Amino acid sequence: MPDGPCSTDPCPRCFAPHRRKVVAFIEANRPIHFVIPAFPAKSRNRRKVLGRVPDMAEVVAIESLQSFCDQVSAIYPPGAVITICSDGHVFSDALGIPDGHVDEYGAHLRRIIGATGGGSIGMYGLSDAMPKMSWDERRRTLLDEYSDGIDAIRDAVRTQEPMRRMFNGIHRFMVEDNSAIEPELSANQCRIRSKRTAYEVVQRSQAWSGLVSHMFPDAVRLSIHPQSDHSDKIGMHLLRTHDSWLTPWHGVVLDDGAGFTLVKRAYAESVGARLVWRHSRPSHFVHDLGVLDAEATIAGGEQ
Known about the structure:
Blueprint: H1 12-27, E1 32-38, H2 56-75, E2 80-86, H3 88-95, H4 99-116, E3 121-124, H5 126-129, H6 135-146, H7 150-159, H8 161-181, H9 187-215, E4 220-223, E5 234-235, E6 252-255, E7 260-263, H10 265-270, E8 274-278, E9 281-286, H11 294-302
Parallel strand pairs: 1-2, 1-4, 2-3, 4-5, 6-9
Antiparallel strand pairs: 6-7, 8-9
Helix pairs in contact: 2-4, 3-9, 6-9, 7-8, 8-9
């Protein structure tokens, strides 16, 4: 996220990458089209999430996206539409998530979108871009056509602050996940393995971003990752959280009586929150955080 003057007073350069696209939709009297690469699959780290299928975190996130479109329509009658460019199959083999689990997650997510009922949200995935291929063939084709290679990613991480920030955020997540999933690893082994995987994830993220730009060149780009000043993407939280890198597929919803907050499962359990089940599956946590101080609340997003 911006941490300079633009964080409180955006300058013309902050709006420039998006203004041209928005104006084009308005002049054509068409819904403003947004795309957001997101909703891949649940993390395998059960210290963060409740299971492998969507839960209340995804429900609240989808409702938030639909509400965003509704608010646009309140001031611009043609409204807005959002295409979720689901990237689960882009990363699944690198993260050790079976492609079948990604399919299961996507099927549940489509039902959530349908149940929301707003009609403004669609989905697009790797199989839409590359039909009639196996998943491994699609991933190889994606990297062949849209990636400059791992060496280029390493150079960018060393020389470009936005790339370094992205890599560091993903590397932190990889360390957390690998230490929980493979506790037999030493701290050094965990860091080395996580670093290698983080480079793969960044490479694939960049390749998927390139494909999305190619397929949707006129759309306004949204991102679930923090963005630097003057970026061609608009960073956004899908629901309230104290950790800018936390996502619905890496966390759980905690209902504190004042609203929903995204935290990690381990934190919700550590404060004695009660697990709520819906439709015979764990859904979210409920707890009165009024007894906790602000520092404990913030720590919930950072554990």
